[in-house]
Design a protein that fits this description.
Helix content of chain B: 25-40%
Distance between the termini of chain A: 37 Å
Largest interface: A-B, 14 and 19 residues
Number of helices of chain B: 11
Order of helices and strands of chain B: EEEHEEHEHHHEHEHEEHEHEEHEH
Oligomer: heterodimer
CATH superfamily of the largest domain in chain B: P-loop containing nucleotide triphosphate hydrolases
Strand content of chain A: under 5%
Structural class of chain B: alpha/beta
Number of domains of chain A: 1
CATH class of the largest domain in chain B: Alpha Beta
């Protein structure tokens, strides 16, 4: 993901599309492409289309995968077989991440392209566009999944995990938008989208906004992993 | 190498001391873990499986630390938890296949058929676990524990939810596997009458402490007094007269008398003289083998006397 992020970041900005098209159609293609960019950027950063539904989705799957199994005794059975705790943690985390990521990638792509005129689909269906959207969705998914996993493991209760994690996501969203805290989602995700789609340039103050969520996600995943593999006791 | 060794094991849950300086060791065989509810049996099992870490002391299985080397231990043991849970969306066969793969069983399909047949699972092995009754889930749990022919099988209430025929089958299977395949068992159960049919050793726990442990013959000789069953033609009169002249503890049961004696010879002499003096007709006089339940009751009685 880091390699993909680096590659996309250092791609030439603002319209260096190597199409061999007639001069008179260039303006139409550029307009269409910009429309696609705006739409995708807004979709990925849109609170009620991406962030909150994704948070709820991730909370449900993570709760079912971790806290519910701890509570109902299934985790005890898993841990009584010769499989390392690391493998159990990583496989559950990956499956929760992938389910959320694939669902929202598909739905956001569909939402974005539904707004584009049909005869322009072939113009805007580029690897550049789709990979940027997928990267955005991946970063958002990682954030919501990591926070939900932390809640799930440290509470060990399905009800606390589900309600607590979703309430936290909602609280973060309210705090971010009302207090204009740019390093918190969903504003952080909108800034990431703007940066990736080349509608803003990198300033030093933006680094926090761009990197806070991914760094927080990484820290949460690491803490959860260490707790699950070395400290967690299953009664 | 000792099969299970526990030294000074202590585990607390807040203010509750689930285990308090528990120490014992077993070399092998079928070991019974006995105790009332809340004695600490399940906590001990969880520590041996590396699910829970002890606060003080040491616990080892096959000479390996239970917390630090739990993966290596789990490769060599099978487990049935009390009220086991399984993923409900797969069939029994699919679940056992996954377990067999984790245990790196060579002939996977054959092993599953063999184990399922032993546990009476073949008829519903291909149905989803969500459709299983409590008894079928228990049988699946036993099959799970036995896949891969482990060196030690830990069973927590193995006969729960099974009908009487099922219970007998499980106990027979445990005895058979011990003798034929040299598999060791650690069984935690409340049903002492079943446990004494199979176990060689027992560990008696109460309030987190070991009250007694050892082989069954040692425990019986140490903790139970000899008993006799006496049947005469007039039990009520006999028991009244006998109680005046003997120190044995007498208990009337239907038309029999169960006598718990301290001195064999004195008791037999007393019986003999009573019968001759009063012309009772002696129908039966034979010694009774003390049961594990008798041992357990006596251990608990001595413990409560110590407290007083």
């Amino acid at each position: 993901m880091l390699a993909l992020f680096t590659y996309i970041t250092f791609l030439p900005r603002g319209g260096s599309f190597s199409f061999t098209v007639l001069q008179e159609s260039l303006i139409w293609e550029e307009i269409t492409r910009k429309l696609a960019f705006y739409t995708i950027r807004d979709a990925a950063g849109f609170t009620f289309l991406a962030y909150l539904p994704m948070s709820l989705f991730a909370s449900i799957f993570v709760t079912l995968s971790f806290a519910y199994e701890i509570e109902n005794g299934l985790m005890k059975v898993h841990l009584s077989h010769p499989i390392s705790r690391r493998n159990i943690f990583l496989s559950k985390l990956t499956s929760c991440f992938l389910i959320t990521f694939l669902t929202f990638s598909a739905s956001l792509l569909a939402y974005s392209f539904l707004r584009i005129p049909e005869n322009s689909l072939s113009v805007i269906f580029s690897l550049d566009l789709i990979s940027k959207l997928l990267l955005l969705v991946a970063l958002e998914t990682l954030f919501v999944t990591s926070l939900a996993v932390s809640f799930s493991l440290f509470s060990g209760k399905a009800s606390v995990s589900l309600i607590g994690s979703f309430a936290t996501f909602y609280f973060i969203q309210v705090l971010s938008e009302n207090a204009n805290l740019e390093f918190l989602p969903p504003i952080a995700f909108r800034n990431q989208a703007s940066f990736l789609f080349a509608f803003s340039t990198m300033k030093s103050a933006d680094v926090t906004s761009l990197l806070a969520a991914p760094v927080a996600s990484a820290v949460l995943v690491l803490l959860s992993y260490l707790y699950f593999s070395r400290r967690m006791q299953v009664n | 190498m000792r099969l299970v060794e526990v030294k000074g094991l202590t585990k607390c849950y807040g203010k509750l001391k689930a285990l308090n300086k528990v120490t014992f060791r077993v070399e092998g065989g079928i070991i019974g873990l006995i105790g009332p509810n809340g004695a600490g049996k399940s906590t001990l099992i969880k520590i041996l499986l590396g699910l829970v870490c002890e606060d003080e002391g040491e616990a080892s299985v096959f000479g390996m630390d239970c917390w630090k080397q739990r993966n290596k231990i789990l490769e060599r043991i099978g487990v049935l938890h009390e009220k086991p849970r399984f993923p409900s969306w797969v069939t029994g066969r699919e679940y056992l296949e996954q377990v067999a793969k984790l245990k790196q069983v060579a002939n996977l399909k054959e092993e599953i058929v063999q184990v399922s047949d032993k546990m009476g699972l073949l008829a519903f092995i291909d149905k989803k676990i969500s459709s299983y009754s409590a008894g079928m889930v228990q049988r699946l749990g036993l099959a799970d524990a036995l896949v891969g022919k482990p060196e030690l099988v830990i069973l927590d209430e193995p006969t729960a939810n099974l009908d009487p025929i099922g219970r007998t089958e499980v106990l027979t299977m445990i005895r058979h596997m011990r003798h034929e395949e040299d598999i060791n068992f650690l069984i935690s159960t409340h049903v002492l009458s079943e446990l004494e049919k199979v176990c060689d050793n027992a560990v008696i726990l109460h309030e987190g402490m070991v009250l007694a442990h050892g082989t069954l013959p040692d425990l019986v000789s140490k903790y139970s007094s000899p008993k006799y069953i006496v049947r005469v033609n007039n039990a009520q009169t006999f028991i009244k007269k006998l109680s005046k002249q003997t120190r044995a503890k007498l208990e009337a049961k239907d038309d029999s008398i169960i006598a718990t004696v301290e001195d064999h010879d004195a008791f037999l002499t007393e019986i003999n003289s009573l019968i001759k003096r009063n012309s009772f007709l002696l129908k039966e006089l034979k010694p009774l083998s003390p049961s594990l339940e008798d041992v357990f009751i006596e251990v608990m009685r001595r413990k409560s006397n110590e407290k007083d």
